[in-house]
Amino acid sequence: MERRTHIRKSIDSNLTVYLYFSGRRIGQCSAHNLSMGGVFLKTELFHLAEDAPLDLLFTIDKSSSNIVRLYRTPAVVAHSADEGFGIRFCNQNKLSPSQYLKISSRNKSQDW
Description:
Elements: E1 9-10, E2 16-21, E3 24-34, E4 38-42, E5 53-61, E6 68-81, E7 84-89, H1 97-106
Antiparallel strand pairs: 1-3, 2-3, 2-5, 3-4, 4-7, 5-6, 6-7
């Protein structure tokens, strides 16, 4: 039974996510889908324990320029699967990556 509180959106572009645990980078994945509450990361290279605290660093490439935007957020591992794992964002008071991506795409000509 699905317990999702937010609608998932598939990612059409290559959204790279760097994973940090206790301040150290532990890996790199690509995002499969994204919602206001979390993200599913595709990887078969390693598995993480449920409830493991992470910091995620999203890199957002702008195809119209050489600018790469970064977005960092705290998160925890919600569940694992054979092809990757689901991540739940911890700080809902700030913009989630999906909100940031919407703002970013609306302001394509504006450099922040």
